[in-house]
Design brief:
DNA polymerase, domain 1; 12 helices; Trna Endonuclease, Chain: A, domain 1; 271 residues; globular; 3 domains; 5-stranded mixed β-sheet; alpha/beta
Length: 271
């Protein structure tokens, strides 16, 4: 099989690995046979120097043609998270929703806290089941390829030290990958990291997939619909299943037919 060098989102060049296509397709719900077939098709379509963004579009198009709509939408998870900010949803609120489903109690979002030396604006404060209070720093990027690095890890720890009398633990959460230096430092000081594919066995994407906490943006709503959903604090797609669509349609003027279609797609995605 020919060796193809591609350009990653961060500008680095690497050899194309079809196994990564297979893994992401399976994570989205495709069976191994379909995932392998798509990886083979991608390998025959790509060329030297092609970007991961271009390859992503090829895979998405092949999934659109060969898989169910639910698989195609689940494959767009990372892209959907990156659309939260522009949609009017805060990444901090989304992280709070995720942590809440994993046993944490959300105490506050975006509050100012006086430290020993200065006042800090804390993205998220949560309590774990053992009643320990956590300082949570959230780093949101709306472009792939941007690592959260050592600087962010150092910054989070510095804030934690200044607020040591008010917090028991610290956590740094981001929607992209973390650098090896950040992992090394965080491990050394006992800082919890949560990011895309880290920790390896339960990264941000795994936590979302395990409890079906897909963001509302995964349904590809229109800009106007996103504005309405944001105003009504509907951030998690499956929360749409709990609303009274007739009442919601009357309140928001989103057609009932459209709401039914979004609920149907949500059921397909979380099944």
């Amino acid at each position: 099989m020919r060796k193809i060098i591609i350009t990653k989102a961060n500008g680095q060049r690497a050899e194309f690995d079809p196994r990564k296509v297979i893994t992401t397709c399976i994570s989205a719900g495709a069976d191994h046979t379909l995932a392998k077939r798509i990886a083979n098709q991608v390998q025959h379509k790509i060329r030297h120097g092609m970007t991961t963004k271009e390859i992503y579009k090829i895979v998405l198009r092949l999934l659109t043609d060969n898989a169910t709509p639910a698989i195609k939408h689940r494959y767009r998870l990372k892209e959907s998270i990156m659309k939260l900010g522009p949609a009017g949803f805060s990444f901090e609120s989304f992280v709070g929703q995720i942590l809440r489903h994993y046993g944490y109690k959300v105490v506050s979002i975006g509050t100012k806290v006086q430290g020993r030396c200065v006042i800090h604006e804390i993205d998220l404060t949560v309590e774990s089941s053992d009643e320990k209070r956590w300082l949570v720093e959230c780093k949101y990027h709306n472009f792939p390829g941007r690592y959260t690095g050592l600087k962010e890890s150092l910054y989070t720890h510095a804030r934690f030290l200044d607020l040591a009398d008010k917090f028991d633990n610290e956590m740094l959460v981001c929607n992209t990958k973390v650098s090896p230096e950040a992992v090394t430092y965080a491990t050394c000081i006992g800082q919890k990291l949560l990011s895309w594919r880290f920790p390896p066995q339960m990264g941000l994407e795994k936590m979302i997939e395990e409890k079906k906490l897909y963001p509302i943006t995964i349904l590809s709503p229109s800009k106007k619909e996103l504005e309405i959903l944001a105003k009504n604090n509907l951030m998690i797609a499956k929360d749409l299943l709990d609303i009274d669509i007739y009442e919601f349609a009357q309140k928001t003027r989103i057609p009932i037919k459209r709401l039914v279609a979004m609920q149907r797609l949500t059921n397909q995605i979380i099944t």
